[in-house]
Records
---
Amino acid sequence: MPKLTTLLKPLLLFTMLLIPIAASAHAILVKSQPAKDEEVTEAPKQIDLWFNDPVRSEYKALAVIDSDGKRVDKRDVEQDLLDGSHIHAGVEDLQPGTYTIRYRVVSQDTHIVTGKFQFTVKP
């Protein structure tokens, strides 16, 4: 009679291959309004960012900086209640110029994701 461990090893290996392993991925910015490097003729009232996956609700940040280094967002970043991949913040009345959007979110896998990009308001 074969040993119990000789029978269990192949069965255990086969079972492990059948169980799906959850893949953890960092959130990736997939869309923004205004878009990266976009030139707009009408200044936005709000900055919107969308990620490929929902982000955690705590520790999110979104800042808009003008070319003089002054922060011009309203410091009111919020996450959409129905779409956890969408965050947004209001901005002051933006004058013509180049603006930098900086963001920081926490992925569902708890990794911190940061980035920045620019857009321009044309006269």
---
Amino acid sequence: MDDSLSRVFAALADPIRRDIVARLSADDATVTELAAPYDVSLQAVSKHLAVLETAGLISRRKDGQQRWAHLEVDVFDLLTGWIDRYRRRAELRYQRLDAVLADMTPPDATDHRSDP
């Protein structure tokens, strides 16, 4: 498996990191803003951000005293491509199954009725 893909999936395995990604999809945010809803330290949130950054999901910048996080949406193309490949395979399997089931449909029941 591609190392970058593995890093992305590993980064998204944590619910706090998934929530951070969801929040950053709306707008850039500071570490303090991202840490606010969690009962964890700023250092813990910074570690989560480091994992997301290593995976390529976010970038960070410093502006004065504030550190901002920005969602890198291009990495989602990698995920989407991987997921779509397997979704298409599954759809083809289901289409083949639908064809088999259609062939198995019994003949019209009216052909086998006896008249009263």
